[in-house]
Amino acid sequence: MTEYVSTTPGLFPLPDWAKDDLSDLKGHQKHDLIGGDEGGEIAAAYENARSDVIEDQQNAGLDRIVEGQLRWDDMLAHPLAVHDAVETRGIVRYYDNNNFYREPVVSDDLEFSGDVADELEAASELTDGDLQAVLPGPYSLADLATDEQYGDEAAFLDAIADFLAGEVDAFPAHETLFLLEPSLVEEPPEDGADERASEAIDRVASATDADVVVQPYWGALEEKVYAHLLDADIDAVGFDFVANQDDNIYNIQEYGATGDISLGLADGQNTLVEDPEAIRDRVDWVEDQLQVTEFETVYLTTNTETFYLPYAKYQEKLEALAEAADLAEVTAA
Amino acid sequence: MTTNENRDQFRPEDHENDHFIMTSVVGSYPKPKWLNRAKELYQDPDHSFDEDDYQEAKDDAARLITNEHERAGLDTVVDGEMRRNEMVEFFAHRIEGYEFNGPVKVWGHNYFDKPSVVSEVEYTDSWLVDEYKFTAEAADRPVKVPITGPYTLANWSFNEAYEDDDELTLALADLVNEEVEKLVDAGARYIQIDEPALATTPDDHAIVGEALEHIVADIPEEVRIGLHVCYGDYSRIYPEILDYPVDEFDLELANGDYDQLDVFKDPEFTADLALGVTDVHVAEVESVEQIEENIKKGLEVVPPEQLVVSPDCGVKLLPREVAYGKMANMVEATRNVEADLDEGNVDIERGAPTPADD
């Protein structure tokens, strides 16, 4: 019998009070962004904001609770942007969005950092066995960064995968790990690189006993990329059904799927809040298209991060997802 | 020398050189500190500084900055957008169908009140006619009116109401057309459509072109229509943009040290080029000599009669004295290049790609 799990890929908007306070405390310029060594009032503001978003998720009734990644000024590039072996340079566009991050340039060996593990430690104090870790997948993180240390693409991807695996190894107990991989869609790997991307993901996934969900978004994966991804030892692949339905369904019909599946059904980039019933109907629709397959776990999530949204709308999205998962359980039973 | 009637309607009668390269600005300018202070007082419910007082402050600032542009010697001027807060918000507040739900992140701790389109967009009152009339009254030079373009208005909003963003873009384009008609009736002859969202998504040139056709429908030929684009990947939009129904393309290029200039050399650039010749992200005033070199980059793409110069983008984030210094040096550099052209001292091969650094 299928379990329906409501969750999100994290990277939430800051509560409005924290936007104001942290603007004042940190400033607005490039050199004011997070360095990873913050303390005092800045650290305290983030701590309060973290409690807020964890409470939001608990109030909404989500089945998995994320830390919120509120410190991630550079979005998915964060784990590198705060790393000692990395220099941050100009402000560059974040995929095709009107958002920007500091270009991280890796200029030394990527040793263990522990930055994300510290966040999760703090979050685990506030959660009750339903913690979900979130990281950029190795392929996307390598794609967002510039390498001046490892020399070639394959070696750089290896180094990033080893680095992320080391970080995961230091995580406190977590139920699920989401690896966000938008670059697999936006900058698809070529022949050979697709296999390496899958191996890199496999390496990161092997560092945890938790269920691992790999979530690509902003479209569907190319067929070969999807086929290779299925070779990685992961529990679920995510599908962005907001951006593309037909190609995602095609991939599953043609190549099969993992035992669990993650469905991006609520739009993380639009203020229009979906009805829980409509989200539930979309789950039914996907399952109807794939009649032969029964999944053990179906994750219901926004397709993308939600930092794009005004705070109140992000809260409403969480509620819609939690309710949709409850409705899906009821229908299934 | 061939002429360019559309551009040369803005040539000052007392212009000192035979050659004329028009100088202009993109639009925004640093607000005087007292104007920001006046806004705070106006927003403070406990203070007696009221709407009329704030209106007076904005009028004063608009007059001041218009005159500051004239003092710098610019051929066409703007009021520095003293009455506008942000390029999408300002218009969204004036268009029926928009709603605001709070700030969203652009980068770091820079946010904007990204609005949502929740129902069909409609035109009610004019957006800019009062602003234009006031500036034209205050100015001795011709006034340019910048308007945020429909593609950017659509792209930088949440679309809850339209089937897709293209449909929203075209609906907004019809409203922009209505506003341009009103501005032209009020006497405006130089309109600039700002589309910073162009060249950020593959193939977006098609919808922007279609939107521009809507915008210029029934607008008289002699009205100069410019299109401002910045910080995009221009190879995504060139040469397709040459088919747009506009007289001038205003392009940010100094910021990237003209590394995208070659894009515009082949095929031949057939419109007027308003070239960014000072970098608005560097808080230092470039020397007159440096700006002269930058202006000459433009002559690698178009002949002098198709050239206009302006800063890369709006200068509102610069310290005010730096912004002024850039304008003044830009004008001086332009007049120097014109004089050099008059004397036949400029020898630039047009259309040749820049040789790679050795």
UniProtKB/TrEMBL annotation, chain A:
Q: Which GO terms describe its molecular function?
A: 5-methyltetrahydropteroyltriglutamate-homocysteine S-methyltransferase activity; zinc ion binding
Q: Which domain of life is it from?
A: Archaea
A single GO BP term for this record reads: amino acid biosynthetic process
Q: What does the UniProt keyword field contain?
A: Methyltransferase, Transferase
Q: Which residue ranges does the record assign to the Cobalamin-independent methionine synthase MetE N-terminal domain?
A: 89-288
User: What residues form the membrane-spanning segments?
Assistant: none
Q: Which Gene3D superfamilies match?
A: 3.20.20.210
Quote the protein name from its UniProt record.
Answer: 5-methyltetrahydropteroyltriglutamate--homocysteine methyltransferase
Which species is the source of this protein? Natronorubrum texcoconense
UniProtKB/TrEMBL annotation, chain B:
Cofactor(s) it depends on = Zn(2+)
Hydrolase as a keyword of this entry, yes or no, is no
All copies of the Cobalamin-independent methionine synthase MetE C-terminal/archaeal domain together span 22-335
One of the protein's GO biological processes:
methionine biosynthetic process
Q: Which organism is it from?
A: Natronorubrum texcoconense
Record keywords: Cytoplasm included?
no
Q: Which GO terms describe its molecular function?
A: 5-methyltetrahydropteroyltriglutamate-homocysteine S-methyltransferase activity; zinc ion binding
Q: What is this protein called?
A: Methionine synthase (B12-independent)
> Which CDD domains does this chain map to?
CIMS_C_terminal_like (cd03311)
